[in-house]
Amino acid sequence: MTTEATTVFKPVIPSKIAESIESLRSEGWTADDFLNFPRYDEECPEARLLYHYFRNNRVTFAAAVINSYSVQEMQQ
User: Does pTM surpass 0.90?
Assistant: First the structure.
């Protein structure tokens, strides 16, 4: 019987997405709020940005919200 170790990596997300997540967390959003898309108000630019990121990166987004993440710094 072979036992394999599983390495779990933090998802890497763009800094703009991380800023939006932290901004909404500071407003009281929890992991459940981020995964409850009716909560995403069209008046909230951070939520709108996250919704569009989620549509293209579902697993990464969910892992970042539920666990933790690393930030991919934008190169200029």
Answer: no
